[in-house]
Design a protein that fits this description.
heterodimer; A: Rossmann fold; Rossmann fold; 2 domains; 26% helix; 29% strand; B: alpha/beta; nine-stranded mixed β-sheet; globular; binds flavin-adenine dinucleotide
Chain lengths: 322, 260
Amino acid sequence: MALSKIWVLAEATDGKVTTSTLELLTKARSLADTVEAIYSGGDADAIAGQLGEYGASKVYTTGDLAGALPGVPVSGAIAALVDGGNAPDAIIAATSYYGRDIAGRLSVKLDRTVITNNTDIEVDGSSLVTTEPVFGGTTDVKTTFTAAGPHLVLVRPKSFVAESAGGSAAAVETIAVPDGGKSAGAKVITRHVEEREGPSLDEAAVVVSGGRGLGEQEKYALIEELAKLLNAAPGASRAIVDAGWVPYSYQVGQTGKVVKPTVYIAAGISGATQHMVGMKGSKNIIAINKDAEAPIFAVSDLGIVGDVHKVLPQLIEALKAR
Amino acid sequence: MNVVVCVKQIPDPADPGALDPTTKTLKRDGKLILDESDSYGVEMALQLVTTAGGGEVTLVSMAPNGEVSGLRTALAMGAAKAILVSDDALAGSDALATAKVLAKAIQRVEGADLVLTATESSDGYTGTVPEQIAGLLDLPSVTFAKSISVEGSTIKIQRQTEAGYDDVECPLPAVVSVTAGVVEPRYPSFKGIMAAKSKPVDTLTVADLGLDASQVGWAGAGQQIVSIAEAPAREAGEVFEDDGTAAEKIVAFLDDLKVL
Ligand SMILES: Cc1cc2nc3c(=O)[nH]c(=O)nc-3n(C[C@H](O)[C@H](O)[C@H](O)COP(=O)(O)OP(=O)(O)OC[C@H]3O[C@@H](n4cnc5c(N)ncnc54)[C@H](O)[C@@H]3O)c2cc1C
Ligand SMILES: Cc1cc2nc3c(=O)[nH]c(=O)nc-3n(C[C@H](O)[C@H](O)[C@H](O)COP(=O)(O)OP(=O)(O)OC[C@H]3O[C@@H](n4cnc5c(N)ncnc54)[C@H](O)[C@@H]3O)c2cc1C
């Protein structure tokens, strides 16, 4: 039996709906009769076509937030809609900065728990059963809600495959943002975008990531050169992001990006559980590590026990020679 | 400047433990330690107090069995005092119940200008507790802070984003979550470790906080685990010792996949 209505928190950048939003809309369609989106940008009209194509019949928009961080205003607007007698069975969002902030605030406003970090959702009567991988993905925990809805669910990106439903544009309805009172006031003054070269981590067919085994920041150039030759996105473990070798936007893993490319190459990465949850879904994994006992070899299809300072330059030469 | 830092005490991640098959929660019977993710908040708080030239850092933690090991570590770094909430009724608490407890404990700290947390804990990592605390206290909040500076009654924050970072301003008092790795947490000195032993730790129960036991623990949890199963494992493929032909092998592998 399907639920009657699900709301999806939609995210978009530069007029393009994010892949994780399209994944959630696709899944929501299979769980509920009606799927609607909640959005907080000034360009709802521009994205209504994409949202509708993937199954949203309507998009409620707060309009542009004028720099306010989304947690307070968007959760306030959603809570007002729910209080207005328009409650859905579930509200789902991506495990993103945006989704987490809004879900946290909303859980207080609605006094509802949030089940986070999920990779699957099933309907069970009027409730939902969610699947959350724990211990680096070695164990799947299924959880259900014991209280009444709306159920709040956060889902990891790349858990579902986005498929168009061929729907027509979603109807756009503007919703009011209640005064945030004492809790309002956090405001973005300037945005800084760190430019990346080549394809994005989300979309690339090949991802080449480097870790602490590279030894020093300058050696990350090997990863970049290899990535360029393979038309791949360069990535990183958290160890070298924390060390300041590359920006955070390169990080793969639990607190970074989830990637599922055709090929993932891990060079000098040990394979900590928090790294593995971000790349274990890759179709093929190549690992280069000098330690034969490194956990990364347990998930790799091709493992090379060797020195990255020898293997990477040889690989670069071999590819250049082709 | 008075700063409250929420610090979680967790099982040693080097020994990640297991889910208890009957209670379906993480086993927390061994000694707990300071979550490394919280050491950054503690360090940042100490630096803010030093820069302000006055005030102190108060720790707030919820943990079973009166656990203080992790608190002592943070007290040894330089925090002045701690509030620990420990009560059997808290077992099984979800993130929202945890936030309700922490919010009540934070309200007991007089004159708190700023509340710091990590962006997510190392063991439960829901990442929702900071915003939940802020919501319960009706305070503004900024998540994923890389740096914080204070200017009068406003804080300026560099907030990490998925594409780079934002400069954010926020009025005080506020709740801010701090990303890992942004400051170098100090090692407790011998003097600090000795001093920590006599710093005050106020241990409270759910009733002390004026919370109803039905709102927390198993009783208050809005969720229930229905099954725990081993995930389908990925099969390991071939592993070669590099004998000078590694590059060749990788090229052949990529060729087969038609990604070249
Ligand atoms: C809450 C939390 C969230 C986290 N989130 C993430 C996340 O999102 N992403 C992430 O990656 N990590 C994350 N981590 C950190 C994670 O636990 C590991 O610390 C990190 O992934 C280790 O990075 P690494 O593999 O580069 O470094 P290390 O673990 O130090 O491994 C380096 C590897 O390089 C090998 N090596 C050394 N020299 C050479 C050489 N010359 N040639 C070949 N190999 C060599 C070594 O054998 C070793 O296996 C998180 C941790 C916590 C607590
Ligand atoms: C594998 C696993 C999955 C879980 N999934 C869910 C879920 O989906 N939904 C849910 O509601 N609960 C879940 N829980 C329970 C949840 O982890 C606990 O309720 C926990 O007490 C608080 O959540 P957190 O550690 O995830 O908080 P986070 O939001 O990740 O913590 C952020 C920060 O808040 C502060 N903080 C959090 N807890 C404390 C504390 N006890 N004392 C002091 N400071 C603290 C710390 O600074 C921490 O770094 C899960 C637990 C486990 C072990």
